């Protein structure tokens, strides 16, 4: 009987252990998301997140997050990663390769060490600083986006990739300022910084070098710092010097409520009347506009076609923000994706 009793105890312990494990691995309760895109049929419709991505801000940096697809005929929640998708609408990556709001791929070369306007609307402007080099014998610069400057209301924010000689994944290569002052965002996935007026949120989407920047009711920016790799250097013959790996940004934008008169290298592709000169099927369709969208600095609004006029739509924004606050919603997400709400 003694061996049998020992065997019984062992089986019982195994059963208890399996029950405990099932409790600890239990999936979290799905959150609900909604849209704040006024005029859309999905406006304020609450949808439960899918079981495969139940959270809008998963603890695992490699896990997919829940987003609301505000332009889906079904008003459905979808699973996507919280880092820039260089093949998605609103993306700006590589030697600047853009994908417009119309889904068309185009290239904009610009010039090294100059600034150009990506988005200019009544209540938001986003500029980019280009870095690059021109190897001997080339007729133009190779360029990449090194920094972004956001202006909204009477505030400004900058995000930049810091210059580094050799790339190290264990080092953070991001620098931020808000209203002209440096700000520190502690390393660590989901580390977060909020402005005192809650009009800006920065959140890390990995331990370092990837963030999401949110201006509620206007835009969400997914950004990651990357270097020019040795393979890229060889394939494209960039001739990168040994003392600079040309750390730059890969970004993707989600917009909310852009006006029909929005301007900018990327912004114009969201206009309903815009006819993109980039022809589908062309290997590298280049779209011009350097003269129209050049601006004197990262935080200037002096491009020829800039339309940023803070305060013009202030009453509309205040009304939207009041409703946003009473909904107890977390992050504003635009251009096809909604906001996450706690119930």
Report how far apart the termini are.
Answer: 56 Å
Q: Note poorly predicted spans.
A: 314-343
The structure class reads alpha+beta
Widest β-sheet, arrangement of strands: 7-6-5-18-17-16-15-14
- In round numbers, the mean pLDDT is 86
Beta percentage is 25-35%
Q: Whole-number radius of gyration?
A: 23 Å
Shape: globular
Strand tally, please?
Answer: 20
Largest sheet composition = 8 strands, antiparallel
Number of helical stretches of at least 4 residues: 4
List the secondary-structure elements in sequence, H or E.
Answer: HEEEEEEEEEEEEEEEEEHEHEHE
How helix-rich are the residues, as a percent range? 10-25%
Give me a quick take on this structure.
This protein has helices at residues 2-24, 230-236, 290-293, 314-326; strands spanning 32-34, 47-48, 65-68, 77-80, 91-93, 97-99, 105-107, 114-120, 124-133, 142-152, 155-161, 174-178, 181-183, 192-194, 201-204, 210-215, 219-226, 248-255, 294-295, 339-341. It is of the alpha+beta class.
Helix-strand blueprint:
Blueprint: H1 2-24, E1 32-34, E2 47-48, E3 65-68, E4 77-80, E5 91-93, E6 97-99, E7 105-107, E8 114-120, E9 124-133, E10 142-152, E11 155-161, E12 174-178, E13 181-183, E14 192-194, E15 201-204, E16 210-215, E17 219-226, H2 230-236, E18 248-255, H3 290-293, E19 294-295, H4 314-326, E20 339-341
Antiparallel strand pairs: 1-2, 1-20, 3-4, 5-6, 5-18, 6-7, 8-9, 8-19, 9-10, 10-11, 11-12, 12-13, 14-15, 15-16, 16-17, 17-18
């Amino acid at each position: 009987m003694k061996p049998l009793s020992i065997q019984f105890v062992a089986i019982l312990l195994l059963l208890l252990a399996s029950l405990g494990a099932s409790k600890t691995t239990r999936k979290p309760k799905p959150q609900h998301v909604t849209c704040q895109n006024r005029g859309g049929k999905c406006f304020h419709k609450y949808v439960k997140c899918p079981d495969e991505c139940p959270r809008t801000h998963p603890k695992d940096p490699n896990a997919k997050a829940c987003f609301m697809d505000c332009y889906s005929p079904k008003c459905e929640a979808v699973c996507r990663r919280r880092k820039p998708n260089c093949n998605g609408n609103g993306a700006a990556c590589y030697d600047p390769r853009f994908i417009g709001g119309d889904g068309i791929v185009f290239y904009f070369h610009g010039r090294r060490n100059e600034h150009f306007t990506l988005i200019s609307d009544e209540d938001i402007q986003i500029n980019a600083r280009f870095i690059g080099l021109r190897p001997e014998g080339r007729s133009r610069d190779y360029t990449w986006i090194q920094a972004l400057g956001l202006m909204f209301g009477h505030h400004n924010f900058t995000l930049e990739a810091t210059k580094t000689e050799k790339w190290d994944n264990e080092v953070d290569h991001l620098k931020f300022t808000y209203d002209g002052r440096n700000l520190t965002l502690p390393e660590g996935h989901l580390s977060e910084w909020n402005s005192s007026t809650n009009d800006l949120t920065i959140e890390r989407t990995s331990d370092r070098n990837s963030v999401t920047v949110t201006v509620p009711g206007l835009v969400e920016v997914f950004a990651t710092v990357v270097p020019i790799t040795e393979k890229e250097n060889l394939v494209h013959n960039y001739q990168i010097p040994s003392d600079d790996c040309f750390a730059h940004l890969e970004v993707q934008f989600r917009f909310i409520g852009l006006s029909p008169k929005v301007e900018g290298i990327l912004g114009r592709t969201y206009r309903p009347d815009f006819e993109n000169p980039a022809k589908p099927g062309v290997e590298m369709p280049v779209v011009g506009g350097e003269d129209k969208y050049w601006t004197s600095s990262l935080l200037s609004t002096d491009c020829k076609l800039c339309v940023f006029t803070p305060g013009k739509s202030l009453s509309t924004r205040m009304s939207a923000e009041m409703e946003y606050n009473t909904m107890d919603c977390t992050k504003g997400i635009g251009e096809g994706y909604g906001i996450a709400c706690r119930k």
